[in-house]
Specification:
By secondary structure, this protein is α/β, with parallel strands linked by helices. It is built from ten helices and six strands. β2 and β3 form a beta hairpin.
Length: 304
């Protein structure tokens, strides 16, 4: 799942218990390993909703610092983790700091027991600031993007694993704000982005929510309805994603939000996105220019 999908949303009422295993910044290998871990511990797993984005297939994206193979496919906490979390003075100190921070800082994100994370910073009328930060991160971290064949193979392994276990797998490309797509374009990676989508649909048909559509083109401002930053959408948008892919409350989903992609329609879809992008750039020069300015700022910092 993605961070913006709420496991308690009514579209999932007949699929409980549900858990959001949204992993911030994870690559495709990590996603595969956590799925293997989930299957090890949940023998009756029936449905996997898999959110994909361009970044998680970047060859330059390694495993996250907290990722530990030793914790996976086990049914209990490791002895070392138990010692570290129970008896460490550092843990006690961090616990005290966490309690105090939660008491005094309403901007902290909140994790719920079902894995859903409520991004509090999205409610503070600081969206423009958050957008600038997230776009800058893209240019800093992914400016040398290389599409990873290994990560594509990991996706193929996810598909095979679900098929072997009789698990229904629904894949979708996340509805990042169009400024994220513009960052990819400004970085000279648009052709790689299109090739990535071609490769993905060879492995798995997916719902694509990343078009320049009525949701993703919301004008950037300090107070936004749909987004927290360029890559994180709010819960209401996550609900629309679930509505579309699960055929729930169809009338509430904008007609242009979500296209089911297969090898048969991928080329026409990519052509439509190119056309929609050109229209958006002409109609929203300020948002398009914002991405260019951030790119220039990051390049200037690197040369100093």
């Amino acid at each position: 799942m993605n961070l913006g999908l709420n496991p308690t949303y009514s579209a999932l009422d007949d699929k409980q218990p549900a858990y959001n295993l949204g992993l911030n910044g994870a690559n495709t290998y990590e996603t595969l390993r956590y799925l293997q871990h989930a299957i090890k511990n949940q023998k009756d797993l029936k449905l996997v909703i898999l959110g994909l984005d361009f970044i998680m297939f970047n060859q330059e994206l390694g495993n996250q610092p907290g990722f530990d193979e030793g914790r996976l496919e086990k049914q209990a906490i490791t002895s070392q983790d138990f010692i570290n979390t129970t008896f460490s003075l550092d843990t006690l100190s961090l616990s005290e700091k966490t309690i105090e921070a939660n008491r005094t800082n309403s901007d902290r994100d909140i994790y719920y027991p079902n894995g859903f994370m409520r991004l509090q910073r999205g409610d503070k009328d600081k969206n423009l600031t958050e957008f600038k930060k997230s776009i800058a991160v893209y240019f800093n971290v992914h400016s040398n993007y290389k599409l990873s064949q290994q990560y594509l193979d990991d996706l193929r392994e996810i598909v095979n694993l679900c098929r072997e276990r009789g698990i229904t797998l629904i894949g979708f490309i996340s509805p990042a704000h169009v400024t994220q797509s513009e960052a990819i374009y400004a970085a000279g990676q648009w052709q790689i982005l299109e090739q990535w989508k071609r490769e993905v649909v060879k492995i798995l048909p997916v719902w694509d929510f990343s078009d320049y559509n009525s949701i993703t083109t919301e004008p950037v401002s300090e107070k936004m309805k749909n987004y927290i930053d360029s890559s994180h959408y709010k819960e209401a948008i996550g609900n629309l994603v679930l509505d579309r892919i699960l055929s729930y409350k169809k009338v509430e989903v904008p007609k242009d939000f979500g296209v089911y992609l297969t090898p048969d329609n991928i080329e026409s879809h990519l052509a439509k996105i190119r056309a929609n992008r050109e229209k958006w750039v002409k109609a929203n020069p300020n948002d398009a220019e914002l991405v260019k300015i951030i790119k220039q700022e990051q390049e200037t910092k690197k040369t100093k």
